[in-house]
Amino acid sequence: MIARRVVPMAIAIVAGLVMAVSYFVRSIEWMGEAAADVFNVIAAIAFVLGAGSLLKANLSAISRRDRGWGYAAVTLAAFLITLVVGMAKIGVNPSPDAPQAAWSGSQQTAGTPFGWIYEFILSPLTATMFALLAFYVASAAFRAFRAKNTAAVLLLVTAFVVLLGRTYAGVVLTDWMPAWASGLRLENLSSYVMAVFGTAGNRAIMIGIALGVAATGLRILLGLDRSWLGGGGSA
Question: Cβ(157)–Cβ(141) under 8 Å?
């Protein structure tokens, strides 16, 4: 039992240290590239395991006739059809660079069955999902933009300026302002807020994420965080 936890942790620590050090020491850069190649192989295996888990979960839901099992059947059928069409490269023409090889072309070429699935099934579904997401965002914004305190008031005013400044109505409402006050027009205020305050906020978030990633990585490399091994727990 101890070996099942110590060995994976030792491999993770060594591989992490090799990749981190090779980024700064050029003489062992090849070791980092080798570790990255191993990671890509493991990631490919993880995709296979994920596909197996998807099949198992949906087949179990269909066999038990769980609530919503019809959606599981649709998911399973779409997964299998896309997998077969993509891996078998059905309808793919040979590449001009290798005309003698039947499967040398790309399955993502426009007009191929796989490309048709992407263009006419996946893309509309993605657009539909984001369209529905807009309503949830609007609902959340309505609840968040209640002027309960100073911070909420600032958020409400900023959101109003940015949203209205991106519309034609915002341009019309402040079009009467003279040239010397053009910076106060809603479209210009909206651009200024996004370019200055939005960029500053995004950079602060990215810095926070980077610090969190670095702290988590150090905890794993030092063996202080062992929750990724399963069973939970940190030193």
Answer: no
Residue 217 lies in a domain: yes
pTM: 0.61
**pLDDT at position 12:** 85
Q: Which domain holds residue 157?
A: 145-235
3-state secondary structure of 218: helix
**How many domains does the chain contain in total?**
1
Q: In this structure, is residue 72 part of a structural domain?
A: no
- Amino acid identity of residue 102, one-letter, is A
- With bands split at pLDDT 50, 70 and 90, how would you rate the model's confidence at 196? very high
Helices (H), 65-149: 69-88, 113-117, 123-144
Q: Please write the tens of the pLDDT for every residue from 150-166.
A: 877 787 788 888 888 88
* H helix runs in the chain, sequence order: 2-22, 29-64, 69-88, 113-117, 123-144, 150-165, 168-173, 186-192, 199-221
Give the Å distances, CA to CA, from 71 to 24, 53, 66, 75, 78. 50, 16, 10, 6, 11
- Contacts of residue 130, defined as CB under 8 A and 6 or more positions apart, other chains included, come to none
Q: How far apart are CA 30 and CA 22, in angstroms?
A: 8
